[in-house]
Amino acid sequence: MAKGNIDGFYQVYEVFSKRNQKGDFQHQFSLLAPNREMAFIMAQENFMRREPVVDLWVVKREDIRMMKPEEREMVKRLDNKDYRLTKGYGYLKKKWRQYEQNMLDEKEIMSWGEMGKEGRKKTQ
């Protein structure tokens, strides 16, 4: 008996759908069916009548290759790509706000000129 074959008659199928032309395929559910055509019909009946769908994929579970445990471990070691994530730039907004607060505005600069005039008047 095959891995995805239940009771020698039914097989497990995975259903993927796409809601719009620009969207990605998403896994929706698994179903049991005697063959590929029946699985497709069952997927249409169970899913397409409830939600708008542009495309539908029905795939026999045993045809999907999954990663082996040793392959998962290898990916974990190679998955050190924090430098690619943009979360490291989150502090820039706060830093920019502090910089802007410390910047001199026009009124403050003009007040320096007035202070200089007052100082000159007192010395004269």
Automatic annotation (TrEMBL):
InterPro entries named among the record's database cross-references: PaaB (IPR009359), PaaB_sf (IPR038693)
Gene3D superfamilies, sorted: Phenylacetic acid degradation B (3.10.20.520)
Alphabetical list of Pfam families matching this protein: PaaB
Name of this chain's protein: 1,2-phenylacetyl-CoA epoxidase subunit PaaB
Species this chain originates from: Siminovitchia sediminis
Gene (UniProt): paaB
